[in-house]
Amino acid sequence: MAAETLVGYGGEGEGGDGAVGVEAAIQALNTIIQLHFEKILEKKRDVDTQKKELWRLFQLFFLFLAVVLAAQLGASPDRLQCRHCWAPIGLLSLAHLVFYVAVAQTLRCINGFKYQRRCHKLTLALATDRLKLLKLRFFSSSASAAAAAGAEPPPVLPSDFEIHYQEPPESYLGKFKRSWALHFGFLLCTFGFMVSASVVLLCF
């Protein structure tokens, strides 16, 4: 990513070993910081959008449940027998399945966006620390005195400003996997309970 950032400088102040001038390195780090800050905001908006989509799914699903149950319970009592209820039971089971699959996929997207946002936060923090160290190194009182004496500031090596994409440790990823497994298990249990409840309510 840092290499892509440096392309725009056309090699100004760049040495044969890949070293660049202080200003070019600071500009590269500022560009990286700005990029990852925008990515963090973008992922936050994506998470908020998915949460709104999840809430919309809940609203549509419970509206559908209300319509189906109201239609079934409003039927003539002498016709409300168990053999007449298998069609709405099958419809409710299919609706539950579609709903829970959609919820599971939405939760998976939310976890994915949160993980990516965490990666961008770590990369942003690393770039910010590198920028602080670079400024402290080249703009301290001793460096300013050397520059005032006419000394040429040393070039900045690529290792001082190159920022690689950071990922959280395995424990953080394991937390997301455990959360996803818990949500998936909860959805499976809820699906079985709701189907059983539909049979009991409509048949008995």
From TrEMBL:
The chain crosses the membrane at residues 54-74, 86-107, 180-202. Keywords: Membrane, Transmembrane, Transmembrane helix. This is Transmembrane protein. It comes from the Eukaryota. It comes from Ensete ventricosum. PANTHER family: OS04G0687200 PROTEIN (PTHR36363:SF1).
